[in-house]
Specification:
- By secondary structure, this protein is mostly helical.
- The chain folds into 2 domains: 64 residues; 134 residues, no CATH class.
- It is built from 5 helices and no strands.
């Protein structure tokens, strides 16, 4: 070997001999593997619950919904209304933790000078998120068919179906825009908080 390789080998060997393995390294690796397995199992359980719920709901609608003369389903308007509201609630309960899971590392990097502020910021954005979702769902709740639906004997029409799709797409668009603004503004806020901590206090 060359002189440089010898020096590098000696430096690495000396550094390695001065280090001792962590006594709880094996336990931490085992715990990490166990936590990953639990997370995967939880994800599979949630997916299975979603699929089962959708299948049960679709089966119940197909069995208990009356049929017209041509054999098509005549779904009452309130079934689609309840299904749309439940879909919005399910999206809120799934999307919130999903965004929070991947946003923690981003917030920790932005607020690295004051991590407590970053944690508080995440909590406050969660509150705003659920307030927006709750208000949106309550604004669109219907207790009777609207006139422009032209509902025949209280059945689902194309206009009601179109409005239901618009409601779901609207909340996704709103959350997407707000989330994008949050991604852009968070580094600016983190920079301002860092400068505020570094500035010396003013004495009068």
């Amino acid at each position: 070997m060359s002189t440089l390789e010898d020096r590098l080998h000696d430096a690495l060997a000396a550094e390695g001999s001065s280090r001792s393995p962590s006594p709880d390294l094996f336990e931490r690796v085992v715990d990490s593997i166990g936590a990953d397995r639990m997370r995967r199992r939880r994800v599979r359980t949630i997916v299975a619950a979603w699929v089962t719920g959708v299948a049960v709901a679709a089966g119940a609608v197909a069995v208990f919904t009356p049929r017209g003369r041509s054999g098509g389903l005549l779904m009452p308007w309130w079934i689609l209304e309840v299904a749309t509201d439940l879909a919005l609630v399910a999206i809120a309960l799934w999307l919130g933790p999903f965004i929070k899971r991947f946003g923690r590392a981003y917030a920790a990097d932005v607020f690295h000078d004051n991590p407590l502020t970053g944690k508080s910021y995440i909590v406050l954005t969660d509150i705003v998120y659920y307030l927006i979702f709750s208000a949106y769902i309550l604004f669109w709740v219907h207790f009777a068919p609207e006139e422009h639906w032209n509902a025949y004997v209280g059945q689902v029409t194309q206009a009601q179906l179109q409005q239901s799709m618009t409601r779901i797409g609207g909340i996704l668009l709103i959350i997407g825009i707000l989330h994008g603004l949050n991604i852009v503004l968070m580094p600016i806020l983190g920079r301002l908080f860092s400068l505020n901590r570094r500035l010396p206090p003013h004495h009068t």
